[in-house]
Amino acid sequence: MTLAPTLYDFQIALSHVDRAIDQPQLSLKVARHPSETMQRVWLRVLAFCWLWEERMAFGKGLGEPDEPDLECRDYTGLVTSWVRVGKADPLKVQRAVDQNPHAKVSVLFESPQRLEAFLTEAREVKALRVAKAELAAIDAGLLRALSGFDSRRIKLSLTLVGDHVYAECEGQSFDGPLTRAAL
């Protein structure tokens, strides 16, 4: 018997200062795969907010390992954003860059250390075209703190300014840097 995913309802007040985005009522329904950690759910939510644009949608999830975790398509169906979170494979990211020439390919890692490990692995396997992707890592402490919130309905206020993330969830405030890859 297959376990069903758990549905989470995120109500987010999103402000991305550098991109002039102000979404006071962003509602996300996030399906958590039975084998998925809450930390990965939060990483997907943070990636969604970091890269938010109209028509951004969650991908097929862990059941389809070659599919993006998030994607955005234009009105013709062409992929304009392809996003992976967590432990990405450099060759798969390079393939995404190659197969989606009109898309912005991005990866959000769970820590700066994981980002560095990815870059090291990419150099070792000579996946040089990953440099065309936007690579960043969320602060591990911020992600750990947010992943402690595991209720089915979560209210979140999220502000991104420069490369810093400020979050308020259930009356508690957190913040941390967003580290970008230096290629």
Walkthrough of the structure:
The protein has helices at residues 38-50, 90-99, 112-124, 140-146; strands at residues 6-16, 21-32, 56-58, 70-73, 79-85, 104-109, 134-138, 153-161, 164-169, 172-180. The longest helix has 13 residues, at 38-50. The chain has 183 residues and is α/β, with parallel strands linked by helices.
Write the layout of secondary structure elements.
Layout: E1 6-16, E2 21-32, H1 38-50, E3 56-58, E4 70-73, E5 79-85, H2 90-99, E6 104-109, H3 112-124, E7 134-138, H4 140-146, E8 153-161, E9 164-169, E10 172-180
Parallel strand pairs: 1-8, 5-6, 6-7
Antiparallel strand pairs: 1-2, 3-4, 4-5, 7-10, 8-9, 9-10
Any key phrases for this structure?
183 residues; alpha/beta; 10-stranded mixed β-sheet; 4 helices; 23% helix; globular; YaeQ family protein; YaeQ_sf; Restrct_endonuc-II-like
**Nearest-integer average pLDDT:** 92
Q: What distance separates the N and C termini? A: 46 Å
Task: Output the radius of gyration.
Answer: 16 Å
- How many H/I helical runs? 4
How much helix, percentage-wise, in residues?
A: 10-25%
Q: Which parts are unreliable, with pLDDT below 50 for 5 consecutive residues or more?
A: none
Strand percent estimate:
35-45%
- Multimeric state of these chains? single chain
Instruction: Trace the largest sheet across and list its strands.
Output: 2-1-8-9-10-7-6-5-4-3
Shape: globular
**Helix/strand order:** EEHEEEHEHEHEEE
Structural class: alpha/beta
Number of strands: 10
Largest sheet: 10 strands, mixed
